[in-house]
Design goal:
The complex is a heterodimer of chains A (326) and B (291).
Chain A (H helix, E strand, L loop, with lengths): L2 H12 L1 H43 L1 H7 L2 H4 L3 E2 L4 E2 L2 H32 L2 H13 L5 H27 L14 H25 L3 H9 L4 H30 L2 H7 L16 H8 L6 H34 L4
Antiparallel strand pairs in A: 1-2
Helix pairs in contact in A: 2-13, 3-13, 5-8, 5-10, 5-12, 6-8, 7-11, 8-10, 8-11, 9-10, 10-13, 12-13
Chain B lengths: L2 H14 L25 E12 L2 E12 L3 E5 L6 H8 L9 E9 L2 E2 L7 H7 E4 L11 H11 L5 H14 L3 H4 L12 H14 L4 E5 L7 H14 L4 E5 L3 H7 L2 E6 L2 E7 H6 L4 H7 L5
Helix pairs in contact in B: 4-5, 4-7, 5-7
The chains are: A mainly alpha (326), B alpha/beta (291).
The structure holds adenosine-5'-triphosphate and magnesium ion.
Chain lengths: 326, 291
């Protein structure tokens, strides 16, 4: 046998102690690190709970006075002291939904193009451009919306929608400040989120799937469907949920183009309002404590809705993947 | 092949396996075949094939004729262009962005690069099995087998059911999975996954099967199953297999091609290549002097 091997064996048998004491030192560092990270993780949870608690505390008056009516009625009259949140909830959900309907296909399409089809030279620059959209402050989007998008919608897009689709959803006359315009501007704002995340999801798909699809005689489009889109479903859902979170909470840009009228109407070209907007608009000039309290309750409601939607998304992921985890 | 020779084959295989690495002069046993009387028709003809990645040339005017319903093994050291060559056969080479190809490849006397030949059609006739088993992760075993058919637009449930059973039987996997067809393909063992990939390739109307080191990720038992499968499939298909394992090449193939640095050095009957190679380089390689 090799003598040097024997030597190391001997030292190990003779002096096991230094080895273990080193271990315990490392163990000490590990413990500190573990405690520290646990502390920070806990801190975040604590902050979230505190926020919820503060909102709940601040909205105590309103909860006490309005009870469930807050959630089931749609009159919002601070002077009379009646507060029904439905129009705001409706405006927020509808504008976010519209934004997703527009941005998800576009964003996923862009990232498919970037990862699967575009020439190598084009990929990075285009991705960079799209992702820079995320860095533009939302108030700038709002200004752009007022000066450019809203007039453009009023003069060019909305008349077409009224003429060719019409029905209860697209009824004139349109002012350009509408639920639909808000949806469009939101969709531009969440586009970078969807694009960036879905691009990462597609890039993480192993090349071997694409190769085996192609080798089976799949066309480019079939390869994308079979080898790229199908394995990416869960990741794409994540991208959409993150974007939805951003759309639900977006305030400035929406306020500037949505028309700020608390109305529940199927007409997407009518003015609407949103939860975040009403808080921003009315908080500084609230009439009386109960009004402030009602605005806090809107905030609480927004938080709860976001949370519920996230839980729903997780359940959806769980249901769709559990088929393959048995 | 008669039952008797099949039994003999198994014995030979069993005898060869454990003694590979040890012996000094690696003696490779070749299954002796009666020289076939009828002249085989050429299935694939490679004519002056050169392949490039960017400016790097990976294949240097390769010429070979591959007979129908034979197993051809391609051997050679790593990086010599084996994968590149067989990826030219089903036009997978051109899916690499920088790749170029000159020369011609004929399938049944017709160029696969002809303007009227769609690469998609070529790949349906010339299937491929990769080194790493790649069942589609979100599809069940059943769906994995018929995926090529559904791409072709086959929707008839009865046809599909039959095809699944037929392909899985051909791939010697039916008995192991017949009760779990709805399970995900990725839940099978590596060897089963590889046979699933073979079944998937067989399910389309296949003529030529390319296999790029199909056993290098598999254990010995799965390997011998795949090798037996290759014997079976030879009845109906033309098979081209890349392998690093010379015993395997000797066991499964009738023809062997030895490649070195992008060139085809020797291409002859397997028995001849392994017992009496005409090129010194081939001899050096199969006796383990390099590579
Ligand atoms: N995608 C690629 N881009 C650039 N060069 C490549 C690419 N694929 C292969 N090559 C080069 O082509 C040559 C042949 O590679 P190939 O993969 O055909 O070798 P191989 O014989 O299959 O090797 P191995 O036994 O390791 O699989 C190598 O020198 C390799 O560097
Ligand atoms: Mg290779």
């Amino acid at each position: 046998m090799n003598p040097s091997l024997d030597a190391t064996k001997d030292t190990q048998i003779e002096k096991p102690l230094p080895f273990f004491s080193q271990m315990s030192q490392a163990g000490f560092g590990d413990k500190v690190f573990q405690k520290l990270t646990a502390f920070f993780a806990f801190l975040i949870l604590f902050l979230a709970c505190m926020t919820a608690f503060t909102l709940w505390h601040a909205s105590a008056d309103s909860i006490h006075k309005m009870g469930w009516k807050f959630l089931t009625t749609s009159d919002w009259d601070p002077v009379q002291g009646v507060f029904g949140a439905i129009p705001y909830v409706y405006g927020t959900l509808m504008s976010s939904l519209l934004a997703l309907l527009i941005a998800a296909p576009f964003g996923i399409g862009i990232s498919l193009f970037l990862t699967e089809l575009a020439p190598q030279k084009l990929r990075e620059p285009v991705a960079f451009l799209v992702e820079t959209l995320a860095a533009i402050p939302s108030v700038v989007y709002g200004l752009w919306g007022i000066f450019l998008l809203a007039p453009f919608m009023r003069e060019h897009i909305d008349p077409l929608l009224i003429k060719y689709i019409g029905g209860p959803f697209f009824k004139g006359p349109s002012t350009g400040l509408s639920l639909f315009t808000a949806g469009v501007i939101l969709s531009i704002m969440i586009l970078p989120t969807i694009t960036a995340i879905s691009r990462e999801v597609f890039e993480s798909v192993p090349n071997s799937y694409r190769e085996s699809a192609k080798a089976l005689g799949a066309t480019n489009w079939e390869t994308i469907q079979l080898a790229v889109m199908k394995p990416s479903k869960v990741g794409l859902l994540g991208a959409i949920m993150l974007a939805l979170g951003r759309a639900l909470g977006e305030t400035m840009a929406v306020t500037m183009v949505i028309g700020n009228r608390p109305e529940v109407s199927a007409n997407l070209l009518g003015a609407s309002h949103s939860m975040a907007s009403v808080i921003a608009n009315e908080f500084s000039e609230a009439v009386g404590d109960i009004h402030v309290s009602a605005l806090a309750e809107i905030g609480l409601l927004l938080m709860v809705i976001t949370l519920l939607l996230n839980i729903a998304a997780h359940l959806l992921v769980w249901f769709t993947t559990s088929k393959f985890q048995r | 092949m008669s039952d008797e020779t099949a039994v003999k084959d198994k014995k030979v295989r069993a005898a060869v396996e454990p003694t590979i690495a040890k012996s000094e002069t690696r003696k490779i046993e070749v299954r002796h075949e009666e020289p076939s009387t009828e002249k085989k028709t050429t299935k694939v003809k490679v004519d002056d094939a050169c392949a490039f990645f960017g400016t790097k040339q990976a294949l240097f005017s390769v010429n070979m004729e591959i007979a129908e319903k034979e197993v051809t093994a391609i051997i050679g050291p790593s990086g010599c262009g084996k994968s590149t060559l067989i990826r030219c056969f089903n036009r997978m080479h051109e899916t690499v962005p920088t790749a170029k190809f000159t020369g011609d490849i004929l399938l049944d006397q017709k160029s696969i690069f002809a303007p009227t030949m769609d690469p998609v059609v070529v790949r349906r006739r010339i299937g491929m099995v990769f080194q790493k088993p790649t069942p589609f992760p979100t599809l069940s075993i059943y769906e994995n087998v018929i995926v090529g058919l559904t791409l072709n637009g086959v929707r008839d449930k009865k046809v599909l059911d039959e095809k699944v059973e037929w392909s899985l039987r051909k791939a010697a996997l039916w008995d192991e999975v017949k009760d779990n067809l709805q399970k995900p393909g990725a839940a099978l063992s590596g060897g089963q996954q590889q046979r699933l990939c073979i079944a998937r390739a067989l399910a389309v109307e296949l003529e030529v099967l390319l296999m790029d080191e199909p056993c290098s990720a598999l254990d010995p038992i799965s390997t011998s199953k795949v090798e037996e499968l290759i014997h079976e499939l030879r009845q109906n298909y033309t098979i081209i297999i890349v392998t690093h394992n010379m015993q395997q090449a000797a066991r499964v193939s009738q023809k062997t091609a030895f490649m070195l640095n992008g060139k085809l050095v020797e291409y002859d009957a397997t028995e001849k290549v392994f017992t009496n190679p005409s090129n010194k380089l081939t001899e050096d390689y199969i006796t383990g002097r390099f590579g």
